[in-house]
Amino acid sequence: MLELRPNCECCDADLPPDSKDAFICTFECTFCRHCSKQVLQLICPNCSGNLVPRPIRPASALQRYPASTGRILKPSGCQNHTR
């Protein structure tokens, strides 16, 4: 089950479980739409995998399977990311 992390690892933007702006890689590294497309060119800076839109968990399932509250942030952001 996906963690549904609450923020972008680059800019720390909030990404609630129902956000259509959240992108993830296969390791669930999580980024906002802007950072994913404009900064990272849809490539994860951690694993070099592709970034895809994160699925939205139905609100009814969030009660039983809540989203993660643990924030992950790259100390230097992703501005220095090179492919």
Automatic annotation (TrEMBL):
It comes from the Bacteria. This is DUF1272 domain-containing protein. It comes from Bacterioplanes sanyensis.
